[in-house]
Structures are given as structure tokens and as C-alpha cells.
Amino acid sequence: MAKVRLELFSTIFDNQTIPDFYSSISYADNLIINEPNTCSINGSKVYSVNLVPSYMSCQLCDEHLFNSKKITQHNWGYAIFLNSDSNAAEYLKNKFNSNFRTNLNRSIRRLETCFNIKYKMYHGEIALHDYESLMESLRIMLVNRFRAINEPNNNLPKWKAISKETFPLINQKKASLFVIYHGNRPIEISLNYHLDKILFSSISSYDLDYSKFGLGHIEIYKQLEWCYSNNYIVFEMGVGGMDYKRRWSNNIYNYEHHIYYNKSFPTNSYGLFEIAKIRLKEYLKSKHIPLYIQKIKSAFSPSKDVVDKTTREVKIEQLNAKEIHGDLIRLNLESEGFDHLRKHVYDFMYSNPENIANVEIFQINGTNSYIIKGSDKQIKITL
């Protein structure tokens, strides 16, 4: 008996395709109709569709010929429904306490005070050389970020395919790149996919040198501003319970597994077997059995090389603002060989907000000590 297995979430967002056995998909009073003459379904097959967002309703072709079963999955999705507020600032006010709002607004002000910041959404038009440069920057950000936490990233092994497939989608307004620039340097990038009035923030990362500024939260807020301005209804963050998703979401939902099978024998028997199998699978997931199995396998697997996450000890000394040091060499932070100082300089600027044009960096000649000097404060760091 033939069976069609399909993951709906990646199909409609990443692949920009509505399965041909659906005539339409609806969400939040919006209807997405499949292309004319594409709706077809084979009565001799069992259709097993997982990761269906519970806020979506899927209309099957020739629905009267099929039985259907929905099974709740033990996978959670995270989304922001935008129709209850008029703009991003109002959503922020209604969703978060004053402490979070104050911290976010402070981070935005400090970022824009310290650097020449530009926010850019590439949606509908991007030159190939700009696209390739941004995708390489995003790849490097992901490598550095996941190396720092010593975890694998599922997107990096398929990066060439993602890069090849996404460029035409941006120019067709089916995907986008949201970028935060410091001057001409991208410091945060989000790769998004668009379906009707849903924006799915699929892959995002930031330059670790700017981590003090909370770029992840700023990115979400600025993308929400774009969504409200362009009459979007849902800001989708996908599967996976990362803390920032829980904090921002106003719709935390279960995914569903949908099974469709013909009412006649023998297809109905195979359909019932598929239902039993998926129910068992979700029961085991609810008891965390797959996680335990994975831990046991890991315990008996050959140990992997662990990335050494230890960093050189850094000594930081607060100096008197008027203190003068002799034998100093002025440094240009943009010059080759001084990348390792950037994070220390930017951390200093976050704590002492002023534009980078007013910040000077010196090396004490013949040492590994440096002076970072602002208008009225300075520190000495020794690496």
C-alpha cells in the first residue's frame, strides 16, 4: 500500500508549495487557495502529514471520499498574532512588563547612539552580489554562535542548497532578508519565508561582538514593525522552545499529525494502522522515551572532540578619566589584526554610551595591555 509522508510546515514555508491533495489552507479568517487544476488525490494511498500548525485548517480534495484523523503532536510552535494590536509599540506594551520594555528601548537607544545603524528588509529585490555576501555573513555568524555553545546547527550542512534556493524566492517576494547594519557591516541577519500574510523567521543570527546590545530582541521588534506596516497577520517563529520564542509569542500551539485514508477496504485498514503507529510515537514522546534513548546512544558513542570554550583571562581596570599614559600606540579597530579587541570595545561602549567616533583605542607599547578611552571614561584591559 502506497503512503505519502509529508511535513507540512517546511513544505508551505521553505518549499513555498501547497500539497496538491489540498484544495485550500485557511488561518485567522484568511484563505489560501491552491493553484487551479492542481488539486488531486489518489484514493489508493494513505496520506500522513505531520507538523501541521493547529491554527491552520486544511481542506482536502474530494474530502467526502476520505476518513481523516488529527493527532496532537508533542511538538510546540510559537507565533505572534498581530490582529489584536495596532502597532509593534502597542504589542510591546500589552505583552511585556515595564522592565522588559525599558531594557529593550534602552538597548535600541544605545545601539543607535554608539553606531551608525541602518535597518534594511530585502523583500522583492536584491542584487546577487549583495545576497551572496549577506548569506556568507549569516553562515559565519551561525558557525561562530554555535561553536561558542558547542552545539551543532541543523542548517549549516545544507547551506549551499538553502543559498541556491532562496535567492529567487526573495525576488519573488516569497522570502526576505532582514538586516541590521553597523555602517556597511551586517551585524544581525534574519532569513524569512513569506506565505500570504504570514512571515516565518526561519534562520537568524548576529555578530557576537555586539552581544551586549541584545540584537536578537531588537531584530524581532523591528521585524514586527515591518509586519504591522505591511498588514501581516502572523509573525511565525516555528518549532522549538527557545526562551526568546516563549517570551515574545502570544500563541503557543501544538502541531498536529493529520492522516487521510480512503473509506473503502483495504486502504482503511492501512489508515487505521498508521493512526495506531503515530499515536504510539506521540505517547512515547510525551514520556520523553526518545530523549532517553538518545542519551543512552550518546553514552555508548565514541566521544567527540569538544570545542575548548575557555577564553583567555581578561583583566579590566577602571581608570581615572584624566589619567595619562605614556608610550601609547593609537590603534584603528578596523585594521587587520585587531578583531579580537572589538567585543571589549563594544562592551565598554554599551556601558558608556557614546558614538564610536569619540572612542579611542591605544596599545601600551610592548605589552598586551590596551586603553579604551571615551569622552569622560576610560578602562585598561590586559589580555
What does this structure look like?
With 383 residues, the protein is an alpha+beta fold. It folds into three domains: 3-75 and 253-300, no CATH class; 84-232, Gcn5-related N-acetyltransferase (GNAT) (Aminopeptidase, 3-Layer(aba) Sandwich); 315-382, no CATH class. Helices cover 33% and strands 31% of the residues. The chain has helices at residues 8-12, 88-95, 98-114, 128-148, 159-171, 215-229, 243-248, 267-286, 289-300, 342-351; strands at residues 3-7, 22-27, 30-33, 46-53, 56-60, 66-81, 117-122, 175-182, 185-195, 198-206, 234-239, 251-262, 315-319, 328-331, 360-364, 369-373, 378-382. The strands form three sheets. Strands 1-4-12-6-11-10-9-8-7 form a nine-stranded mixed sheet, with helices on both faces. Strands 13-17-16-15-14 form a five-stranded antiparallel sheet, with helices on one face. Helix 6 (215-229) links the parallel strand 10 (198-206) and strand 11 (234-239). The longest helix has 21 residues, at 128-148. The chain is elongated, with a radius of gyration of 26 Å. The termini are far apart. 26% of the residues are buried. Mean pLDDT is 91; it is low at 303-310. Residues 98-246 form the BioF2-like acetyltransferase domain. GO terms for molecular function: transferase activity. This is Acetyltransferase (GNAT) domain-containing protein. InterPro entries: Acyl_CoA_acyltransferase, BioF2-like_GNAT_dom. Keywords: Transferase.
